[in-house]
Write a structure and sequence with these properties.
8 helices, 9 strands, 7-stranded mixed beta sheet, alpha/beta, Rossmann fold, about 40% helix, about 260 residues
C-alpha cells in the first residue's frame, strides 16, 4: 500500500499489478509554461472545483506534439498537491486495470487525477471501454474522488474510416450517425473539458528559449536566436519541447 500522506504520485506497473510510488517528480510549475494561459486557467479552475467538492469535468488535452499538454498536468499536481491532490499515471495498454485501481482508492480521503498520457486507440482495440466505465460508471457509480486527465495528439481518440459512415442518414435536416461513428466519437464526448494546444509563432518560440537563457548579453542573445531558429527549422517544430531540447543540446555554447 502507498502512503498517500507522503506520496504525491504513483504509476501503475502492469507486471507487478500494483502502484509504484514516484519519488522523483518533475518539479515543473505553472509559471514555467508559456503561451497557454487560457488552458492553464481552465484546468486550474476545474481542478479547484474538484478539490472543493463541486462539479468538475474529466479533461482531454489534445493538439500538436510538444506544446505543453503533459507538462500542464504535472504543473497542476505540483500546484495543488498541498491541498490533497494526488496523481496516478497509467499507460494506455494497462487501462484494463483502471477498475481495480478505482476500487482501491475510492474510499481514501484524497482527490485523485488518473493521468493517461498520449492516448489513442487503433481499430479493433477495445481497451478504451475500461476508460469509459471509470468515467461514467456501470451499475456502480464512478468514484467521486477521481477525475481522468488525458492527453492526445488527436481530438477523436479512436480512428474513423469512410466505411464507418455507412448507415449515416439525414432526416428532417438532422444528421443521424451510424452506430460505428457514434461508438467512436462517444469516448471523446465523455470528457466534459476539451483543451486544445497548437504550435506558437516563431516569436513565442524564441520567448520560451529566452527563459532558459535569462542572463545573456544582447550580442549573445542575437546569436542564440539565430541558432534557435535554425534548430526549429531543422526539427520542423516551434513547440516548447523543441525550445527545451535546443537548450539541452546547445545551452553550454551560450552560457
Amino acid at each position: 500500500m502507498i502512503d498517500w500522506e507522503k506520496m504525491k504520485a504513483a504509476v501503475y506497473r502492469a507486471k507487478k499489478e500494483s502502484l509504484k510510488p514516484v519519488f522523483d517528480i518533475d518539479t515543473i510549475t505553472l509559471k514555467d509554461l508559456f503561451h497557454i494561459e487560457e488552458q492553464k486557467k481552465a484546468l486550474c479552475e476545474n481542478t479547484q472545483r474538484f478539490l472543493d467538492g463541486k462539479k468538475a469535468s474529466h479533461a482531454l488535452l489534445w493538439g500538436s506534439r510538444g506544446t505543453g499538454k503533459s507538462s500542464l498536468i504535472k504543473a497542476v499536481l505540483n500546484h495543488f498537491c498541498k491541498d490533497g491532490l494526488r496523481v496516478i499515471e497509467i499507460f494506455r495498454e494497462d487501462l484494463g486495470a483502471l477498475t481495480d485501481i478505482s476500487d482501491e482508492i475510492r474510499e481514501l480521503p484524497y482527490k485523485f487525477i488518473i493521468f493517461c498520457d498520449d492516448i489513442s486507440f487503433e481499430a479493433g482495440d477495445d481497451s478504451y471501454k475500461a476508460l469509459k466505465s471509470v468515467i461514467e460508471g456501470s451499475i456502480e457509480l464512478p468514484p467521486k474522488n477521481v477525475l481522468v486527465y488525458a492527453t492526445s495528439n488527436r481530438r477523436h481518440l479512436i480512428p474513423e474510416f469512410h466505411t464507418d459512415n455507412d448507415g449515416t442518414i439525414v432526416s428532417s435536416g438532422e444528421i443521424h450517425y451510424s452506430d460505428a461513428v457514434e461508438e467512436k466519437i462517444s469516448l471523446s464526448d465523455r470528457f466534459g473539458l476539451w483543451l486544445s494546444f497548437y504550435q506558437g509563432t516563431i516569436n513565442e518560440y524564441l520567448e520560451i528559449a529566452d527563459s532558459y537563457f535569462p542572463s545573456l548579453s544582447p550580442e549573445k542573445r542575437a546569436l542564440m536566436h539565430n541558432e534557435a531558429k535554425r534548430y526549429a527549422a531543422y526539427r520542423a517544430s516551434r513547440s516548447a519541447r523543441t525550445a527545451k531540447q535546443f537548450f539541452e543540446l546547445f545551452g553550454d555554447k551560450f552560457l
